[in-house]
Sequence to fold (82 residues):
Amino acid sequence: MNVIGDFVVSITLSVPEELKEEMDRHPELNWSEVARQAIRERVILLKKMDRLLAESKLTEEDAIELGRKVNKALAKRYKEMR
Fold:
């Protein structure tokens, strides 16, 4: 990231006070680096999803219908386990 020509930008991140208190209990951690890594991992995942979706033939309606069928099957399985 620190290669000549790369630009680094800053962002402001808001967290609930309770979370900040927990973070303050671990000052040995570089919370900026933790956030950078989490964002980097999410971006990598999103890029993979974009590549998969680019090749998909499913329409949005197909995906919704498939999701409904999966939810129905899972609900049935859960009910049978009880």
Observations:
- Helices lie at 17-24, 31-54, 60-81.
- Residues 17-81 form one domain.
